[in-house]
Specification:
Layout: E1 7-10, H1 19-36, H2 45-61, H3 70-79, E2 83-86, H4 110-121, H5 124-134, H6 141-150, H7 156-159
Parallel strand pairs: 1-2
Helix pairs in contact: 1-4, 1-5, 2-3, 2-4, 3-4, 3-6, 5-6
Length: 164
């Protein structure tokens, strides 16, 4: 829609043990975004599917401590008010969602994969505590993500219509 949004670039390699700090950096980005009056990130559908493809590819070529389900990835990307991006870190390239206007590479962005999977997805309960402390709105989707993770993600289809 032409609006401006915050994009945070994560360069790899990032230690997977730093998931909480990774996730909180996204929260800080949202806090700054609100303070300066910039709109939230509104991903295009092809971008959402690119994140799904890329994280699953990253799991095959590198490794992840935790891999969110495809629906959990979609929920995070559709609802996170900050664009999680990064430099290409792997030689592997996506096959299905290539040459997207707002994603500068077809190669796997390892930092982005780690921040989304082992940061936001895995550390959602800790992020939620900080969201509550800071009284930040727009992060209520974390509750659904946390509930899906506790139940093994099997209720994701029931929950996906509650939050974008």
């Amino acid at each position: 829609d032409g609006s401006q949004y915050i994009r945070i670039f994560y360069s790899g390699p990032i230690r997977s043990a730093g998931g909480t700090a990774q996730a909180l950096s996204v929260l800080v980005g949202d806090y700054v975004r609100r303070g300066i009056g910039i709109d939230r990130y509104k991903p295009r559908e092809e971008e959402v599917e690119r994140y799904v493809e890329e994280i699953l590819l990253y799991k095959r070529v590198a490794s992840l401590q935790y891999t969110p389900s495809e629906d959990e990835i979609r929920m995070i990307v559709r609802n996170c008010p900050v664009c999680i991006d990064g430099d290409p870190t792997e030689e592997a390239e996506v096959e299905g969602h290539r040459d997207l206007e707002r994603i500068g590479t077809n190669r796997v962005r390892g930092g982005m994969c780690l921040v989304l999977a082992e940061g936001l997805a895995l550390k959602a309960p800790k992020v939620k505590k900080h969201v509550n402390k800071l009284k930040m709105d727009g992060w209520d989707w974390l509750e659904i993500l946390i509930g899906g993770a506790k139940s093994g993600g099997s209720d994701e289809d029931d929950n996906k219509n509650k939050i974008k």
